[in-house]
Design goal:
Shape: globular
Oligomer: single chain
Number of helices: 12
Largest sheet: none
Radius of gyration: 21 Å
Distance between the termini: 64 Å
Number of domains: 2
Helix content: 55-70%
């Protein structure tokens, strides 16, 4: 029988998911992925995906639509209810961040590997595929950020990046769970993670943090008559 291009692509994506999760996105060669996928043709991966970035994009594209659908549904429900008490509104939005990703813990088709890959990507904003998603207002994570912003102090949004802290904690904790043995009941873990994210969103900027932030601004502001410094840094 002639080779099935669709089957070959799926095998390559499955091998990439596993190896990217176990050894890191940059810790495995394309040749190793090709071999792990059972491909005798040494150029199969390049033929289907071009390079490492193309393969990574294919892994993300496999899981991303489901997460987008689930999060948009939860955000639709949140907006349709309107006027929720502050604590309930905050936890509802925390759940909209966590639950669509947590579903992947029970996805036997690479879901747990995907969560471990996403944890690696949370700091790698320079990837073109991630940049395009971050710039797209239609992406559910950007919609979530906009709905959360009014709950936070402006300084927490603009300078302390409290929303990103919530996102980062979500990815890190889900990846930690995904790296453990599967087959567990994840309901308690998921509910507690929602509690943690809700607490992050509820955290007020302390007097000490506000003072230190003010001091940093003062240091970075050139004094009157002083020459402007070139380059960055505090």
């Amino acid at each position: 029988m002639p080779p099935n291009p669709g089957a070959t692509s799926r095998q390559l994506v499955a091998a990439a998911e596993r190896l990217f999760a176990e050894r890191g996105i940059d810790g495995v060669s394309l040749r190793e992925i090709n071999t792990a996928a059972g491909q005798r043709n040494s150029t199969a991966l390049q033929y289907h995906f071009g390079d490492r970035t193309g393969l990574l994009n294919a892994v993300l594209a496999k899981h991303h639509p489901e997460i987008e659908m689930r999060r948009h549904q939860l955000l639709d429900e949140y907006e349709s209810r309107g006027g929720l008490p502050e604590t309930e509104a905050r936890r509802t939005l925390a759940a909209a961040l966590v639950r669509p990703m947590a579903v992947k813990l029970a996805d036997p088709d690479g879901g747990r590997a995907y969560l471990r890959i996403m944890e690696q990507l949370v700091h790698r904003t320079g990837l073109p595929s991630l940049q395009s998603r971050q710039a797209d207002p239609g992406q559910s994570i950007n919609r979530w950020r906009e709905l959360v912003a009014p709950m936070l102090e402006e300084v927490a949004v603009r300078e302390l990046h409290q929303r990103f802290t919530a996102i980062r904690v979500t990815y890190v904790e889900l990846a930690r769970r995904a790296a453990g043995p599967d087959g567990k009941d994840d309901r308690l873990f998921t509910s507690h993670l929602i509690d943690v994210v809700s607490a992050i969103l509820a955290t007020e900027v302390s007097e000490e943090t506000a003072r230190l932030l003010g001091e940093r601004k003062s240091r970075s502001r050139p004094s009157e008559g002083a020459p402007l410094r070139r380059g960055g840094g505090p």
